[in-house]
Design a protein that fits this description.
The protein has helices spanning about 5-10, 15-25, 80-85, 110-115, 120-145, 150-160, 160-165, 170-175, 180-185; strands spanning about 30, 35-40, 45-55, 55-60, 65-75, 80, 95, 100-105. It is built from nine helices and eight strands. The protein folds into two domains: about 5-125, Sandwich (Jelly Rolls), CATH 2.60.120.10; about 145-189. The strands form two sheets. Strands 1-8-3-6 form a four-stranded antiparallel beta sheet. A four-stranded antiparallel beta sheet has the order 2-7-4-5. It is of the alpha+beta class. It comes from Flavobacterium pygoscelis. InterPro entries: cNMP-bd_dom, cNMP-bd_dom_sf, RmlC-like_jellyroll.
């Protein structure tokens, strides 16, 4: 149950088996259904999720009800509504399972205790934040001024498993194009 999390942590830093056991004791395994909402728009986020199996997405809704996917996470990744998790204000976004998932969940309280107690976990958190920032910046820079085909090529190059795991509707909302445009440009590849 904890082997993927162990690999994630030990790939980032050196840590003893005893410390790993203490860290694992703070994570609780849960299984979810497909399309389950883990964090609702107007709730405060108190949990961080590590994905053993499945995938999650963060998204918002426009006033007309159109979904805008902001982030996708897959096996071996952490995911949460980070601004709400940090500042304890309503999430202003949704966190949803897009496949049946096996997750390891840690409470905000336990998460910050681990950061204080284990320098390796603090380093891990900094790395999560850095990678999140880099990914967001790359996406912004790659999508600004690019046409739909160039955006799709960026996704294929940088996240090759993405289109195999995510519906056309969700992928289109992430790319900022319509599902019909996505279908049309996929046929051009």
């Amino acid at each position: 149950m904890y082997s993927l999390l162990k690999k994630y942590i030990t790939d980032q830093s050196t840590i003893s088996e005893a410390d790993l056991k203490l860290i694992f004791s703070c994570f609780k395994p849960i299984e979810t259904k497909r399309n389950e909402i883990l964090i609702d728009f107007d709730t405060i986020c108190n949990y961080y999720y590590f994905i053993n199996k499945g995938s999650l997405r963060l998204y918002t809704l426009n006033t007309d009800g159109t979904e805008n996917s902001r982030y996708f996470a897959f096996e071996g990744m952490f995911c949460t509504a980070l601004p709400s998790f940090i500042d304890q204000k309503p999430a202003a976004e949704y966190l949803q399972t897009i496949e049946k998932c096996e997750l390891l969940v840690i409470s905000r309280t336990d998460f910050y205790k681990l950061i204080d107690q284990f320098p390796a976990f603090d380093s891990l958190y900094k790395r999560i934040l850095e990678l999140g920032f880099i990914t967001a910046q790359q996406r912004i820079y790659s999508f600004q001024g690019n046409n739909a085909l160039e955006k799709l090529k960026w996704i294929i190059k940088n996240q090759p498993h993405f289109l195999l795991r995510v519906s056309n509707k969700m992928a289109a909302s992430y790319l900022g194009i319509s599902p019909s445009t996505l279908s049309r440009i996929k046929s051009q590849l």
